[in-house]
Amino acid sequence: MNALLICPHQRPSVALLGHREPLALLPVCGKRLIEYWIERLADRGARAVKVLASDRPEQIRAVVGDGRRWGLRVEVIPESHELSIDEAREKYCSDSRPWLSAPEDVQAMDCLPNGSAALFAGFRSCFEQILEFSARAATPTRIGLREIQPGVWSGLRARIDSKARLRPPCWIGDNVRIGPRTVIGPNAVIDNRCFIERGVEITDSVIGPETFVGAYTEIDDSLALGNALINWKTNSHVFVPDPFLLNSITGARLRIDVPVLLGRLAAATAMILTSPLALYVCIKCAFRGQQPLRELVAVRPVMRLDGISLEKFPYYEFTNMNRWVRRWPQLWSIVNGDFCWVGNRPMSPSRAERMTDDFERLWLHAPVGLVSLADVRGWMDSFSDEARAHASFYAVQRGWGLDGQILCRAPVVMALSAQKLWENNLVPLPVRQWLRTEYPTFTGNETH
């Protein structure tokens, strides 16, 4: 049986909850929102679940994987906008495969499973729904969860000082540390891997996972996520500047992304090995009385408290050089993290304003890259319908396999000076066919 899950896009009333991660990954009583929904569908007999995500689908894919831990198959499908239930059913449920009976076949994750109200209607609603759900989540069937006193539930490996006072109802997750002379509850939810120091008082509040609460801090009527403190009664918030009062434990860790680190090292090595080329360009421009570099400006989407906005950033290229050689300074952009080896080419602010629909705006959903799919398909430095179609295709389908194919084809295209030879049909037919292998053919009519 098949089913669809629709991830919520940004909600202005609770924009801060989606600041670091999509709302579909909201932590609730030890798990993510999307995990509860997949568990529910698995209990209903679903064997394949498609997740429609319009907000940071790569983060959702990293959490749910392929679904094997639930005994089913999960596929995360990027969408340009949040679909309604009727739109999703019409688009994906029209095939002959067996689907769960309505309304189980298509579910919008705007609430918790079996929730009584909308989860993202406001911060008050979010707090009330999490508190209500904590009472239902506190069941003996949950592995490791136990009732240590009436109305007080504690998870695996939670260490609670004997001098701490726990006032029911309250829910304490796994690997939580609670110091002496603390007062937890009533109506408190402490999520997994939190560290609560001595003398802390927490009432009518939810503490998000991996949050540090410093000694003698008092938290009332609030949602605490890292150093963000939200008062659900007044809808006000503050980012606590003092890490000794409130902070994210994960924020203090040193995170090393090995593939990114290797990519940056490769870019630095490439710059060193090809430095004579840069010296040649500088000498050539000096003889001509020209500047060797010119600064350009591109835009990229960034997540802010009020939603997604476009941020400008500079990058450089050589002047009056071959289209491939002029990109040499952008190796430094890879080193400092503005570029990737493979992605969509940088978009200027003026071109970004000319994006006419959500399909074309997918160009900005992929990272900025030194080499793009359009480059190896013969549309180098182009803003044509075909180039936009390739960019949109890459944004949706990008992955290690596609990146590897693009990197393998790029040296061949570079050696053939693809732009001129391709336009003049001077590239041999077998080579042209090889370069187009495994990519669909786009026409201008398919960009809308």
Summarize the structure.
The chain has 448 residues and is α/β, with parallel strands linked by helices. The chain folds into three domains: 2-116, no CATH class; 138-252, 3 Solenoid (UDP N-Acetylglucosamine Acyltransferase, domain 1); 258-447, no CATH class. The protein is built from 14 helices and 27 strands.
Describe the structure.
The protein is α/β, with parallel strands linked by helices. It folds into 3 domains: 2-116, no CATH class; 138-252, 3 Solenoid (UDP N-Acetylglucosamine Acyltransferase, domain 1); 258-447, no CATH class. It has 14 helices and 27 strands. It has an 8-stranded mixed β-sheet with strand order 7-8-11-14-17-20-21-22, covered by helices on one side. A hairpin with a 2-residue loop joins strand 7 (146-149) and strand 8 (152-154). It starts with a strand and ends in a 13-residue tail after the last helix. The model is unreliable at 438-448 (pLDDT under 50).
